[in-house]
Amino acid sequence: MFRVPWLDDRGEIQVNRGMRVEFNSAIGPYKGGLRFHPSVNLGIIKFLGFEQIFKNALTTLPMGAGKGGSDFDPKGKSDNEVMRFCQSFMSELWRHIGEYVDIPAGDIGVGPREIGYLFGTYKKLTRRFEGALTSKGVNWGVSLIRPEATGYGCVYFAEEMLKTRGQNMKGKRVVISGSGNVAQYAAEKVLQLGGKPITLSDSNGYIVDEEGLNAEKLAFVLELKNNKRGRIREYQNKYPKAGYYDIDAAKSSNPLWEVRCDVALPCATQNEINQEDAQHLVKNGCYCVSEGANMPTTPGGVGVFLESRVLYGPGKAANAGGVATSGLEMSQNALRLSWTREEVDQRLHDIMITIHENCRKTAEQYGTPGNYVNGANIASFLKVANAMMEQGVVRRTVRPATSAL
Length: 405
What we know:
This protein has about 400 residues and is an alpha/beta fold. Helices cover about 45% and strands about 15% of the residues.
């Protein structure tokens, strides 16, 4: 943990807290995102890092697990303020990372802009151009479709779950939360597979478009959120037939999850679906939930999905496509190669199919068929635990207390 002092545009000194938790390197160097958001604290980073161990293990790629970030909020900051913060943040972090040690990536609040500023400082301090960060810019080392990968992977996992019941995404009504990177590209992949995404949201509210998003509408959202950094309520100004609804923070549940759907893709943030929300989803016909965000469903909500026999893909499996493609980016950086979008997308699709099959088979093997939570937890734990054991167990023997005679 470290302080991050930086100058705002008024010339005033601001100080935030930065941190990086390196959790496990049994199957590869530490790997996990950096999150810049006011909610960031050590507890959140520790638990996200703990989950990252098992998510990374499921990808089939050689990656350990870490997580990091800061309580800095990029929202409302100028490019120069974000740059000065990132430069200060990396002036401490650089000594702890490297392509063979720890490879951070982006997360909430950390996109290509922030990664660019971070990498520029890392390169200046180390005098090395290496794959010490992933999610880089298109012109200097990113794995193509990395921005799309988490959303695409989430939908690929949902499609695989639907196949176990003889179905696919075609014609399905799909409720998506969030309107950032993951949600945008989840909607895009749903469209490509013939589904009908009908919602998007941000921290203020959500839109419901009963006609469904299409390529033109999605392009508007990408421009609105990525370039103009606007709010999702502006969607209704462009497309008046869509409804916009404010989210009352005082409510115990989120009314977004009361929208009738076949498939739900929570792609915003942690703990966005509680027990009551899950009950609404089941009551209104949802039978497939694939998590695009990290742990968006509370334990009570998970219990409702499992009891109701909903096809439920937990985040450590369903949203592993992002870190899997970061792993592919690490490989490309090491080999000094660049793969085409089609090649990376095919590799991502194959990885998500493998993750689904591994979870499905493990759940059956341990007596809980159809329970992807058990399948993901057991399969990933066994891989990491066996690797740790095979590399040698280090024990500290505590001698029993004896009386002083």
